[in-house]
Write a structure and sequence with these properties.
This protein has 37 residues and is mainly α. The chain has two helices and no strands. The chain is rod-shaped, with a radius of gyration of 16 Å. The N and C termini lie far apart (46 Å). The chain crosses the membrane at residues 12-33.
Length: 37
């Protein structure tokens, strides 16, 4: 990564990270939640 740290990229990354993590959590917890309830 050579001098490509633009503010737009960092903003997009900081916005996409929580969405990606929440999506992964939902996908991983979907088969487990019915068993816990």
């Amino acid at each position: 990564m050579t001098e490509h740290q633009t503010p737009g990229f960092m903003t997009g990354f900081s916005l996409l990270l929580p969405v990606t993590l929440s999506t992964m959590a939902i996908v991983l917890l979907a088969p487990i939640l019915p068993q816990l309830l």
